[in-house]
């Protein structure tokens, strides 16, 4: 098949959408298919184009067999709602213009989390008269309302008009797709509530690159950089420091730990994003001395950081919208045999409990975070057990080799062709699909 994939993000950016798209596309190329990804110059999260790249009208490269076409966009930092929307709209227009001159694909794909990328897919599919597979990783405009980007609980009149317009565009976009792929059951339920027919929805969850994320010994130099000695217990958050993540909870937990005399308990944030400077300012004003903000690191450094933590934090704000979210960092930490401290309700909580990979606490409850960390600090054997069980579950259920094969079968069905996978291969016709596997897993857990 010839596959045309629209994604605002792509490596060397290391966020979850970029990692997922690349993991899938390189496997489809290895299976004998032609894949073109239309993206922009890498610039996340600071809105600064990475060294070696240009924000030009068009640049083209081959990345592990994937044809990557980078188009011009209005580059903006990952903060400021209107500037980010301007960036998304410019990508939609520029990417669509590029795609008009491509050979006709068999299937067009487009992925969120920003739905203007989805609209580029809608119009490209109509122009080429080919089916669209729309991937939903986030719910717009709910997710941007949830983080307070549109006036919080009290948006003004202009913001309300904009929200209504985005809701209308969202539903029109869903109707323009032949098939919708989501990353979790929570998103599927939300789509059903929006009137999308169940037979048009597939669930292909996030997974893990097990070649990159393999257990290894802790790096003493990284632990020292995080302010943790050999005997200390290090809780590390590794990922985007964004508006949705509510990482003020870490600073509050650090103060509680200091007040309780838990001198061995240390915290570190490894990553960058819209909220990093806000957290830096708070820490500068009142530093308890047991937390470090370490900034952005290369994706290829992430396994070493995860391995150097005694527990990995995964956290989102306590909003109803985020009950549908299934953060990919769960699978990466579990693949590294690290126990997780999870402050996310809903689908993510169910997955972690079914994997047996860590402890859950109420989102934004700093005291509960300290209690969970203290529990693991006192019982090293429990953390080791969480790590072993979590990795075994991830390898069995969330390996990208398997997920890419199942996804490819869906694309072949949409295109009306036979995919190049045999009956015994991952994703082959005799393999249960993602919904059957998830349902079976839920029954076992019950």
Q: Which superfamily, in CATH terms, is the homologous superfamily of the largest domain?
A: Glycogen Phosphorylase B
Strand content: 15-25%
What is the CATH C-level name of the largest domain? Alpha Beta
Shape verdict: globular
Q: Architecture of the largest domain, according to CATH?
A: 3-Layer(aba) Sandwich
Low-confidence parts, pLDDT < 50 over ≥5 residues? Answer: 422-446
- What is the element string, with H for helices and E for strands? EHEEEHEHEHHEHEHEHEHEHEHEHEHHHH
Distance between the ends: 40 Å
- Helical amount among residues, as a percent range? 40-55%
Query: How big is the Rg?
Result: 21 Å
Q: Number of domains in the coordinates?
A: 2
CATH T-level topology of the largest domain: Rossmann fold
Main traits of this protein?
446 residues, alpha/beta, Rossmann fold, 2 domains, 43% helix
What does this structure look like?
The protein contains 16 helices and 14 strands. By secondary structure, the protein is α/β, with parallel strands linked by helices. The chain folds into 2 domains: 249 residues, Rossmann fold (3-Layer(aba) Sandwich); 177 residues, Rossmann fold, CATH 3.40.50. The protein has an 8-stranded mixed beta sheet with strand order 3-4-2-1-5-6-7-8, with helices on both faces. A 6-stranded parallel beta sheet has the order 11-10-9-12-13-14, with helices on both faces. The two termini are 40 Å apart.
Summarize the structure.
With 446 residues, this protein is of the alpha/beta class.
Write the layout of secondary structure elements.
Layout: E1 2-6, H1 16-30, E2 34-40, E3 58-63, E4 66-71, H2 81-99, E5 107-111, H3 115-128, E6 132-136, H4 142-146, H5 157-175, E7 179-182, H6 185-193, E8 201-203, H7 220-225, E9 233-238, H8 248-259, E10 265-270, H9 276-285, E11 291-293, H10 302-308, E12 311-315, H11 329-335, E13 340-343, H12 347-355, E14 358-360, H13 366-378, H14 380-397, H15 400-415, H16 434-445
Parallel strand pairs: 1-2, 1-5, 2-4, 5-6, 6-7, 7-8, 9-10, 9-12, 10-11, 12-13, 13-14
Antiparallel strand pairs: 3-4
Helix pairs in contact: 1-15, 2-3, 8-13
